Amino acid sequence: MNTVVLLACTGLGLGALYFLVASGLSLIFGLMDVLNFAHGALLSIGAYAAWWAATDGGMGFWLAVPFGTAVGTAASVLLELALIRPLYSRPRDQILATVGVGLALPALIMGIWGADARPFPQPEALSGTVRLLGATVPVNRFVLMAAALIVLVLLRLFLAKTRYGLIVRAGVEDRAMVTALGIDVRKAFTLVFAIGGAAASLGGALAGLYFGSINPGQGTGLLIFAFVVVVMGGMGSVTGAAVASVGVGLVQQFANYYTAAGLGDLSVVVLLAVLLLVKPRGLTGRLA
Amino acid sequence: MTTLLAVRDLRVVIDGLHILHGVDLDVAATGVTALLGRNGAGKTTTVKAVMGLVPRTGSLVFDGADIGRLPTHLVVRHGIGYAPEDRGIFAGLTVAENLRLAERDGTPAYDLVFELFPELKQRHRQAAGTLSGGQQQMVAIARTLLNGNRLIIADEPTKGLAPKIVTEVADVLARAAETVPVLLVEQNLALVRRVAGQCAVLADGRTAHQGDARELLADEDAARRLLGVGSHRPTAAPEVTP
Predict the structure, then answer these.
(1) Within a domain: residue A2?
(2) N or C: lower Cβ tally within 10 Å for chain B?
(3) Cβ atoms of A119 and A213 closer than 8 Å
(4) Interface size between A and B, measured as CB pairs under 8 A
(5) Looking at the whole model, is its pTM more than 0.90?
(6) What is the mean pLDDT of chain A?
(7) Domain range for residue B27?
(8) Is residue B71 within 8 angstroms of chain A, CB to CB?
(9) ipTM for the whole complex
(10) Is residue B105 included in any domain, yes or no?
(11) How many angstroms separate the CA atoms of B78 and A23, rounded?
């Protein structure tokens, strides 16, 4: 029982991390048809910016996380304005550009701070454990779950209650028709990139907490599973991404523990294949 | 006839395919101007090109302003409302959200919209995707009436609708045209005869004829040659009460 609880909490923490990356990825693809392969790099930017702020920058953890998130958000907006926007009529070049950024940024980080993992400073309050149903669970698992839950609620409120949320939901269905109502949909593109970048870089900062250390390839490693989550949840669906994140995180943890290490990662891909066979359009019935 | 929208030598090339080879079109400043032609003549592409939804070359002058190089959202902000062929309804959004999305200024004309379409008020919270075809068309037309548009472009608004609903849509178009000029793409010639003043006929991506709509439809030879139908056979078109 102890093990099951611990595995569940760890899986949910991992799922929370996937959600932070996948939610933005899903919105960006749903609205703009852009597969953002640079999304993992945004996570790495958030992670290293938060790490730098907490160590060299001399900020405490509680300032370092928002700092990392802000830097990642700014980088994401810059990416959209400088690279994605000029290539809107050339989707193939767009993908190549994001792949390029996704390779170049981790390489740049590696060049500056080296390829080795850097220990991420753990604040006193979050480094302990709590007893839950007989199991000893690290507190940081719950921090990730809480952060993902808050992001999910905020995203849903944004989509449901604001004009730009309305534009995003409509744009996911039919972008051309949104412009035919007199709306400059490009502003929504930049906003969605900002939101996606913020969530991913927050995920980066919290990934340092979850794994205890950060390394340049972390973002790209997480991105693969985030793509799986996006396809499972249905492109453009935030709620679908949340459900799929939980599923992927749990399956991965349990399979890795109860079978051979590494089989968990494989089982996620099998899960994706099975889901696509049964429900080709993903969990939410949107185009996958 | 005063011209509100003057289209000259409009050409559209998509994926190397020449769809329009030079369309000329004058939309009258009052009443309904009908855009006619057989299937595949380029009617829908013409209105899409006016809206900037497909890459186009040529001259588009709307009330003295050159809109030929503007992106779609700026064309719309010149005061052009567009109800596309497939209705362009956001299925996952409610009726109220579909309408709210179309609001462009501080004073959307909900009074007018709900007077014309009382049903939309009752179905405010219903997902637009669950509406009938006729109701969806009402949403599409309502969106063009919300703002103080100076021109409404409706692309086959009666396509696939039951005869009774066709009559309703025709009533609304006739009513709207009393205050706002309308460019109407339509295959239903009975409806055209009822509401249209001027008309233009396209054939193979070019303008084949421009003139008075009723005169054209009364001229059997010309109607058969340009539209492929004998206008003496109104039974071919759904019934419209005069």
Answers:
(1) no
(2) C
(3) yes
(4) 55
(5) no
(6) 88
(7) 3-93+149-236
(8) yes
(9) 0.88
(10) no
(11) 36
